[in-house]
Amino acid sequence: MKDEGKQRGKLATRTLARVAVFAALIAVLGLPGSLNVFGNAVPITLQTLGVMLAGAILGSWRGALAVVVLLVLVAAGLPLLAGGRGGLGAFTGPSAGFLLGWVPGAAVTGWLVERAGHRPSLPWLLVACVVGGIGVIYLIGIPVQALVTGAPLGATALLSLMFLPGDLAKAVLAAVVAGGTQRAYPDAVPAVHQERVRTGWGR
Known about the structure:
Elements: H1 2-28, H2 47-58, H3 60-75, H4 96-114, H5 122-149, H6 153-160, H7 164-184, H8 190-199
Helix pairs in contact: 1-2, 1-3, 2-3, 2-4, 2-5, 2-7, 3-4, 4-5, 5-6, 5-7
């Protein structure tokens, strides 16, 4: 019983460490800054790449938790968003829906990867990143942007299409990185980690 408790403690520590690493990764991907094009109030950033990677490598709940940790730090005032943005104001502007969409986006990406079992294929990883890291985030971000700016939903959706080529490129990169990581380190496959947790051999 004592060894089992110690093992669970180690598992919890490792889980928290991985969550913290990916929260930091998303923050670091904001360092190159942001770009506003064609008058869109929502900037283009690399941080959605980190959201996709968090879901694809950590799985549904850990990936979502990594994003939650980052957003809590942002809300507390840390300038961790692209362009050095931080504070509660980030959650009241046009990009608020996209930021909040990162959480279910990472969760859905991870959930889909978990469905692929111990050896997720590259096409499946790509589908997971596109559905979770693009589709889910757009589904939340675009209506909120329209609500905040007062612009018609259709016009906002059309304007947001400019994000799509870059986001598809990020999805491809995330799928390739996640696939390579999981081939090199099988424990990085979310389904493998879940099984280890259930059987008490998580590490």
